[in-house]
Amino acid sequence: MTTQLAFVESPVQLLNVLEWAHTQTAPRSAAAEPVGTTDGAPAGSGLPAQTAPASTAPGTGDPADAKPAEALTVVVLSPTDPMSRGQLRRMAQLARDQGLTVHWQEARGGRGALVRTLRRLARPLRSAERVIIGDPFSRYVQLLLTLFAPRHLTVVDDGTATMEFAAQLGRGERLVRWHRKGSLGPRELVLAPVTTLARRRLAPARGRTVEIFTSLPVEAPEGVTVTENAYAWTRDTFGPPLLTGGADLVGTSLVETGVVDADHYARVVSELARAHGATRYFAHRRESAEKLHRIAVETGLQVVRPELPLELIARRGPIGRTVVSFPSTVVHTLPLALAGTGVKVAVIDIAPEWLRATASPRAQGFLSGITGTAAHEVDRLTARASHPADRLEFG
């Protein structure tokens, strides 16, 4: 009997685990007890019985539960921000409806949470035939990877990080997020041995296969299999959507990550809304309340905090006939999720003058690469201004 474990930390990661599972043998429905009951771990599993609080556990089941061959169990390493947790609860229920077992792990729940998580997951990790992860840059996932060496490893999309991961793995570089500056801080120096070992575990080797399951244009590193994520599960499950007039804008966390200047961003959003007749602004789950309030006041846009990843929101509808986005994964995923619906997707280039001084030197090139590799169905918009204070024009 073989087992497969998926570790997710974001709603998009869980969505793409569902997409990956859709391409495999359909999972057999797992027996699910009502939320809030106590799940008993099988004898010898090394995992104690767990009570799943209704407020935090959207699904039931334990990572070490006895499952049929090729069964897939999803372990949610719960984040702390409310938006991510809310979306993950809803995504976990969708996964449960598909017959997957979902185990909610309060991995960041205060003092001792890390030790409890490692103790609970170490044994099932070592026995798993395949491990699926969504963020190879995650320190938490990297620490888990030091505990085991799975025979089969699959990396699913978690935003544009997949592109950078494939490129860094191919070049043999250490794993650093594209928006981070290259110098190592005290925390990175302490975790350097973990990152180094994790990078070896993320690379193909004798007795270990590595797969990248992605909708993004990545060049397969030597020995790595790249499998296309065509968003078939999303299209089969939802829609087609009702189309509204005008356009919808898609927000980004580029301001929050220190890449783009907040004033430039607000000005461009305002100009985009006027140029395209937009009425709604779909917020990224990491956008700050202060920035979103400013956008609502200055632009008159209806700010929407989606309850699910945007691919599902758009597919379920209603959605504008045009969706305008800053450089992000959605310029690759939305054309797939909305194929055949008549929705047009457009991406706005990030001008160099919008970048903050704190931005990584790689930021401009990486963002340009996202727009430059967007699907053929995606229109590219360029903002032109003779002075930062001038009104922007799009062409």
Structure description:
The chain is an alpha/beta fold. It is built from 12 helices and 17 strands. The strands form 4 sheets. A 7-stranded parallel beta sheet has the order 5-4-1-6-7-8-9, with helices on both faces. The chain has a 6-stranded parallel beta sheet with strand order 12-11-10-13-14-15, sandwiched between helices. It has a two-stranded antiparallel sheet with strand order 2-3. β6, α4 (139-145) and β7 form a beta-alpha-beta unit. The longest helix has 16 residues, at 82-97. The model is unreliable at 26-61, 63-69 and 385-392 (pLDDT under 50).
Please outline the helices and strands:
Blueprint: E1 3-8, H1 11-23, E2 38-39, E3 50-51, E4 71-77, H2 82-97, E5 101-105, H3 113-127, E6 130-133, H4 139-145, E7 152-156, H5 161-171, H6 186-201, E8 209-214, E9 224-228, H7 232-237, E10 243-250, H8 262-276, E11 278-282, H9 289-299, E12 302-304, H10 310-316, E13 319-325, H11 330-337, E14 344-348, H12 363-372, E15 378-381, E16 383-384, E17 393-394
Parallel strand pairs: 1-4, 1-6, 4-5, 6-7, 7-8, 8-9, 10-11, 10-13, 11-12, 13-14, 14-15
Antiparallel strand pairs: 2-3, 16-17
